[in-house]
Design brief:
Order of helices and strands: HEEHHHEEEEEEHEHEHEHEHHEHEHE
CATH superfamily of the largest domain: Aldolase class I
Distance between the termini: 41 Å
Number of domains: 2
CATH topology of the largest domain: TIM Barrel
Largest sheet: 10 strands, mixed
Shape: globular
Strand order of the largest sheet: 4-5-6-7-10-11-12-13-14-15
Bound molecules: S-adenosyl-L-homocysteine
Helix content: 25-40%
Length: 379
């Protein structure tokens, strides 16, 4: 028991006894400076140095007093996960294996499109949810990421993208990588706040999306803490099927989950919940399933993303054939639901939805050791 509860806690954001300022949001930094007798505007200065200019060396932060710079250098550091390996897909998708301080590594994916450029980041080392069709689940679970490790993926990716020819910028961030972000609420929230903070990454809430398998109480908590765009991994229109595919459904069944979705957008006229639906051949892809799904969502401001299933070794599922996906989408569209089929990106480098594995020192004994060796990244 102890091992499990310990595993759920991220290590404190300290290295060699120093505080990692990368993970403190504006309020956190203000409290940090107040506790040291410094004025609140120091937080604004620090945010800009670290997140906008990418500076980690306190000595270079020229608008801070000399004595403050010296003190910060003694007590703090700014450290992001480092890309230890990179793979680039034929379609321009990049995937990085990001090294963490304890020997684990998570994956971060950059997906360029004509109209936007999205970074998909991880929130946990592995995942504890065990959704049947997801390869991250097979890796088992080690721990939560710290806030610095979550936002640090954005920090590191931005730095790397700026070096490309031509340089690329991020327009969107999605928490759709490894892990269940709402099981790491305490660390995810400061990271989200930094993403939407004008003095840090300055993204609008529309352009930051958190995807959850449906942790109902935390959906409500997210609404109050930082109401970014919400995506829900639904994958089935009835409880019997969803229980089998997404075991979390046994705790928070569909009706309860959809109520939380209604509350999430209530009173916010232009907001919609995105429902993700992985297309599994012969499992959840019939016309009956489509009609049931349309009925379920008819009174929710919703948008549906159909995700062609991405295979991995021993998955035990196949992707629905394209005509089946088209027919499924046509039924939803005819029922008035905005429905798109997500284009599979980066599957040649195992960077597509459900294919991220990282390097997880499993503490659940679920892993069968399928982590991709680093050498494979450098092909
Ligand atoms: N735990 C969160 C965040 C992960 S997001 C969640 O469940 O929403 C990753 C998305 O990819 C989820 O919608 C997930 O259900 C989906 N997915 C997982 N495995 C997949 C696979 N093999 N093929 C396609 N999509 C998959």
């Amino acid at each position: 028991m102890t091992a499990v509860s310990e595993a759920r806690v991220a290590p404190p954001d300290v290295a060699a006894g120093r505080i990692n300022l990368l993970g403190l949001d504006r309020a956190g930094l203000e409290a940090f400076f107040a506790a040291r007798g410094e004025r609140g505007f120091r937080a604004a200065q620090l945010l800009q140095w670290v997140h906008q200019r990418g500076v980690t060396d306190f000595a270079a932060m020229s608008d801070l007093s000399k004595s403050l710079r010296a003190r910060l250098a003694e007590e703090c550091l700014v450290r992001a996960p480092e890309p230890m390996a990179e793979r680039v897909s034929a379609d321009g998708t990049h995937k990085w294996l990001m090294r963490l301080d304890d020997g684990n590594a998570v994956e971060t994916v950059f997906i360029p499109e004509p109209e936007r450029a999205t970074l998909c980041i991880s929130s946990q080392v592995g995942c504890s949810l065990n959704c049947r069709f997801c390869s991250t689940a097979r890796q088992g679970f080690n721990r939560n990421l710290t806030a610095a490790e979550i936002v640090g993926q954005v920090w590191s990716a931005r730095r790397r993208l700026a070096q490309l020819d031509p340089p690329r910028r991020l327009s969107n961030v999605v928490l759709m990588g490894m892990g269940e972000p709402l099981l790491n609420f305490a660390n995810v929230v400061p990271a989200l706040r930094l993403l939407v903070e004008d003095l840090a990454y300055g993204l609008s809430k529309r352009r930051v999306t958190l995807s959850t398998a449906g942790l109902v109480p935390m959906i409500d908590a997210l609404r109050d803490a930082c109401d970014v765009s919400l995506a829900v991994s639904l994958h089935a229109p009835d409880d019997a099927l969803r229980d089998a595919l997404v075991p979390l459904n046994r705790k928070y069944p569909i009706a309860v989950l959809l109520d939380a979705c209604r509350r999430y957008v209530a009173g916010r006229p232009h907001r919609r919940v995105t429902f993700e639906y992985v297309m599994l051949d012969g499992v959840n892809d019939s016309a009956t399933h489509a009609r049931a799904l349309a009925r379920l969502l008819r009174d929710i401001p919703a948008k549906v993303n159909l995700i062609p299933f991405n295979p991995f070794p021993d998955a035990g599922y196949r992707c629905s054939p394209p005509p089946v996906i088209d027919a499924f989408r046509a039924i939803l569209t005819a029922a008035g639901l905005v429905t798109v089929t997500r284009t599979t990106r980066g599957d040649d480098i195992d960077a597509a939805c459900g294919q991220l594995v990282g390097r997880v020192r499993d503490r659940t004994r679920r892993s069968r050791g399928t982590a991709i060796p680093v050498a494979e990244y450098s092909r």
